[in-house]
Design brief:
4 strands, 2 domains, single chain, alpha/beta, about 50% helix, Rossmann fold, 4-stranded parallel sheet
Length: about 200
């Protein structure tokens, strides 16, 4: 039996890690062996995690509250699991999923089942993230269709824009000249002219 460690990660400094901390304190006897990172899981340049990995040795045990503490996505979780269990010989215990406990079933069947369950759970976690992003995108599209405006409000049109726009539409002045008269970059004038036309047609 090696040394027992715990790892906690929250995505932002504002998030509270109490739930993870309470769970790990029940299974990690030495408080200083619990490492905490308060930053995104976008990469593994996390100082506490890197220190923990360097410190752990073969037959040590690492407790985590849930599988997504190990990585940002399906591939990252599997890679970290492989490095810790296969390369470093560390046992991992996932408190929220007791079947993911590498101390059990050290035989071929036990290892196979653990790896299969891990891959399924990692895929489910990643798939849920994808679904959340899709639902967010669909929600934004629906809101835009209802006329909800996103982003910063546009600056008010300059004085005389309507007359300049009409002259431009009548080919009396060029786009470049119209943009200059409005005090706008050419791309901005074209965008605002398009929006103005849509609003007035509707």
């Amino acid at each position: 039996m090696g040394t027992v460690y715990g790892y906690i990660r929250v995505s932002t400094k504002e998030q509270n890690e109490d739930r993870q901390w309470i769970a790990l304190r029940e299974v990690v006897p030495v408080e200083r062996n619990i490492y905490t990172d308060k930053q995104s899981g976008r990469d593994f340049n996390r100082p506490a995690y890197q220190r923990l990995v360097r410190r752990m040795r073969k037959d040590d045990v690492l407790y985590i509250k849930s599988i997504d503490r190990l990585g940002r996505d399906y591939g990252e979780i599997l890679e970290q699991w492989r490095v810790l269990t296969k390369e470093k010989g560390i046992d991992i215990v996932v408190l929220d999923m007791p079947i993911l406990d590498t101390r059990r079933g050290k035989d071929l069947i036990g290892t196979f089942l653990s790896d299969v369950v891990l891959q399924i759970l990692s895929f489910v976690a990643e798939n849920e993230k994808t679904n959340i992003r899709q639902r967010q995108a669909e929600g934004i599209s629906a809101a835009k269709a209802r006329g909800v405006q996103f982003g910063r409000p546009a600056n008010p049109l300059p004085d005389g824009f309507k007359l300049i726009y009409q002259q431009w539409k009548a080919d009396e002045i060029t786009s470049t000249a119209a943009a200059k008269l409005c005090g706008m970059p050419l791309s901005t004038f074209r965008y605002r002219a398009d929006m103005y036309e849509r609003e007035n047609v509707m």
